[in-house]
């Protein structure tokens, strides 16, 4: 298997037919068919099911495409990085961020890249923390700011800050008081949580406490905006950070109270894939992200504790 075969395979997967893939790759259909047959013989398994109107990937084909996508992207980045090593920092970098991170540093990151690194092309995407991690592992982003990622040897992680969690809701639901609320008392309130699974890990470090909350939740959602709208509508309360619903808290629509016995926290990490080569552009953007997080915390824009 070589890079040319991987490129041809990826084209067939994406185009769905040999003729379209051949046109994309600018090779004869017969040559493409030959390379595909050799690849299937090498792996000893069928990669596509032949149908009257094209090709459909098998389970093996689906798995190979994930690997091929990551390998081809890494090869392209490595080639561009080495060719341009002596020049101004340049290249394509995609960054995924959890919702809170985008609110705190998203615009500042874009501004710094535009002003200081005009040859860097930045792609910024926002999603729930768990989805952001999945995008990283699927090679859809190069760097990700993620809360509480699972221990995984495929990831290279750096902790950057720790946030204390608070209870957020209308005063009618969580009370008028500014005094802390005990964790055990939250069970008696109509609780709204992120949907179970990898996104829910972003809520707190302690998975045992998280499971207890999931068992008592009145509503579970996979949308920050849906949770925010439900809180504002008085449908329940949520565990989050002040930054999470900052605008509603500042306007007085929502109220927050600290949580004690125990206090809850979550940790933000900057993550990348351990097996992907770091380019000059990636190192530059990673350093920018870390510095912007630190600036946001020291300036009081992000209420958190920096992790050295």
UniProtKB/TrEMBL annotation:
InterPro entries linked to this entry: LysR_HTH_N (IPR000847), LysR_subst-bd (IPR005119), WH-like_DNA-bd_sf (IPR036388), WH_DNA-bd_sf (IPR036390)
Keyword Transcription regulation tagged: yes
Pfam families tied to this protein: HTH_1, LysR_substrate
Keywords on record: Activator, DNA-binding, Transcription, Transcription regulation
HTH lysR-type domain span: 1-58
Lineage: Bacteria, Pseudomonadati, Pseudomonadota, Alphaproteobacteria, Hyphomicrobiales
Family, similarity comment: Belongs to the LysR transcriptional regulatory family.
Protein's recorded name: HTH-type transcriptional regulator YofA
Origin species: Nitratireductor thuwali
